[in-house]
Design brief:
alpha/beta, six-stranded parallel sheet, two-stranded antiparallel ribbon, about 40% helix
């Protein structure tokens, strides 16, 4: 882990979070928290089975390590959207919040700007990307070429004072993702600069 973090630092990259880590038993919950503690951070992206949410809450209290539950849109019955996290966790002060995947939200038929506004106290982390279509069949696309309009999203993030991170998640062209990653980051930076 130390060597990995040193390598990242050499490129000016902060390995700020781990996950998504799926937890389908108490043992897997324990392993996840131990892993994150060894890595030395205070939050991770997790997807616990619903029945283990009370145990996850207990581990958050014991360790001080927060959990950002990753939303998976139409691809998963578990935590498809932010509302499901809120309905299951109930209190934003428990240390269990949301890693909002903007692509999956769009594919689920939701408005990301509205979600970010409505659940601002729940959002711990954001995965950004673009999608080829606002349906279950949508695929990750280079930002700026797909269906997501980032202008209202950035407006809400500024208005709500979001202090967390946004992280590009790019699943397209796994054999050679770098061109799409660079194009997407460049587009996002341009939108940020152009909407100040």
């Amino acid at each position: 882990m130390a060597a990995f973090k040193q390598k990242l630092a050499g490129y000016g990259i902060e390995g700020y979070i781990l996950g998504p880590i799926y937890m389908k038993s108490k043992e897997q919950v324990d392993k996840a928290f131990d892993y994150v503690k060894r890595y030395g951070i205070d939050m991770f992206i997790g997807v616990p089975d619903y029945e283990f949410l009370p145990y996850v809450e207990k581990k958050v209290k014991e360790t001080g390590i927060k959990v950002a539950i990753h939303t998976h849109g139409p691809d998963s019955k578990a935590f498809p959207n932010a509302q499901e996290v809120v309905d299951r966790v109930k209190d934003p002060n428990k240390g269990i919040g949301i890693c909002l995947d903007l692509g999956h939200s769009v594919r689920y038929g939701e408005d990301n700007a509205e979600i970010l506004k409505k659940y601002k106290e729940w959002i711990y982390d954001i995965h950004f990307k673009d999608e080829s279509a606002p349906t279950k069949e949508g695929k990750t696309w280079e930002m700026g070429r797909g269906v997501i309009d980032y202008r209202p999203i950035l407006k809400v993030l500024r208005e709500t004072g979001y202090k967390g991170k946004v992280c590009l998640e790019f699943e397209k062209n796994p054999e050679n993702p770098q061109p799409g990653v660079l194009e997407s980051i460049g587009y996002f930076r341009g939108i940020c600069d152009g909407t100040k």
